[in-house]
Design goal:
Elements: E1 2-7, E2 12-19, E3 23-31, H1 33-36, H2 44-65, E4 75-81, H3 85-102, E5 106-110, H4 111-117, E6 130-135, E7 140-145, E8 151-156, H5 162-172, H6 179-187, H7 212-224, H8 232-257, E9 262-266, H9 273-286, E10 289-291, H10 303-313
Parallel strand pairs: 1-4, 4-5, 6-9, 9-10
Antiparallel strand pairs: 1-2, 2-3, 6-7, 7-8
Bound molecules: 5'-O-[(R)-(carboxyoxy)(hydroxy)phosphoryl]adenosine and zinc ion.
């Protein structure tokens, strides 16, 4: 089954063709970083307008890279939420209309379930049940994944998402947007032990997160040290180490609590080198197998959406989505 995936929940317009939920025939991502960079964050209306401009070329490119004509597609899978409503509507309405025009099935996909499916696009992939930690700009969620469509959320952040904390700390240090990559590049030259920032573990037995206190601690440090520019690398390294320690600890704890041998780290923050290395070492120590998407599949993409949609589409018992279905900004349906 060849599925066209479409993703437009935030600041990436993406389209991909994936065969049988696992083989990526093409994956195109048009980033809007240049559009939002001057504002220090995503401007929702500009994102929607840019999606409108990009959606047709991106879909055309995904088809041509896969050497397919539109009428060779079997279905369309498109992100339905969560995300920016105006941004979601562009991809969602396009996806529905495209499928309707071709008279093929379509399915609305949850963006977060999509991220979890990024680990099924490469082999080996995890066995069920496994623990997945999604760390992105909008979410920090721990999941107990029982099947492709039966996914239990064990915990989430009470305030800032991990990626959001990276973005906000980058802004404090005057490093621009998006912050994850710049902070981790800067942190390479810093000493993670030099400045002791707090580790927000909350209740060590719970699976919830909170990063706003850590962000405030960095802000206090910056405000009270006039010469912070000289220490920017140490601040970045200390902050990054705190996030990495907390994410690694909670992941290991969830694996132990749910007796899972397989764990997966997904989402934009999964591209972080220190996090990948530390979690790999921690998993090895615990006898666990960690699954990491390659860097290109950590951030938002449409291949993961097509992969997730495949498992809904191939279930004969599942009713088709209604053509008047709407997007959702938060939560699920
Ligand atoms: O998954 P994603 O592309 O979009 C959302 O669904 O949010 O994640 C984007 C987030 C941003 O906050 C970005 O700063 C963060 O992922 N990020 C990183 C790195 N690369 C991207 N955070 C830490 N280290 C990185 N190398
Ligand atoms: Zn995402």
């Amino acid at each position: 089954m060849k599925i066209l995936g479409i993703e437009s929940s935030c600041d990436e317009t993406a389209a991909a063709v994936v065969e049988d939920g696992v083989r990526v025939l093409s994956s195109i991502v048009a980033s809007q970083i240049a559009v939002h960079h001057p504002y220090g964050g995503v401007v929702p209306e500009l994102a929607s307008r840019k999606h409108i401009e990009n959606i047709m070329p991106v879909v055309r490119q995904a088809l041509s890279r896969a050497s397919l004509e539109a009428d060779q597609l079997d279905a369309v899978a498109v992100t339905r939420g969560p995300g920016l409503v105006g941004a979601l509507l562009v991809g969602f309405c396009f996806g529905k209309a495209f499928a309707y025009g071709l008279d093929i099935p379509w399915v609305g996909v949850d963006h977060l379930e999509g991220h979890i499916h990024s680990v099924f696009l490469e082999s080996p992939s995890p066995d069920f049940p496994f623990i997945a930690l999604l760390a992105s700009g909008g979410h920090t969620n721990l999941y107990y994944v029982k099947s492709h469509t039966d996914i239990e959320c064990l915990g989430q952040t009470f305030d800032d998402a991990a990626g959001e904390a990276f973005d906000k700390v980058a802004k404090m240090l005057g490093l621009g947007y998006p912050g994850g990559k710049v902070i981790s590049d800067l942190a390479k030259a810093g000493d993670p032990e030099k400045i002791a920032f707090p580790r927000p573990y909350l209740d060590k037995n719970a699976f919830d997160f909170s990063f706003s206190g850590l962000k405030s601690a960095v802000n206090r440090y910056v405000q009270t040290h006039g010469d912070f520019e000289d220490q920017a690398a140490d601040i970045a390294a200390g902050f990054e180490q705190s996030v990495v320690d907390v994410l690694s600890f909670k992941m290991m704890h969830a694996a132990k609590a749910r007796k899972c041998r397989h764990i997966a780290l997904v989402g934009g923050v999964a591209a972080n080198r220190r996090l990948r290395d530390q979690m790999t070492a921690a998993a090895r120590k615990q006898g666990l197998t960690l699954f990491l998407p390659s860097i290109g599949l950590c951030g938002d993409n449409a291949a993961m959406i097509a992969a997730s949609g495949y498992y809904y589409l191939k279930d004969p018992a599942r009713p088709a989505d209604a053509l008047n279905a709407d997007v959702y900004s938060r939560g699920k349906r």
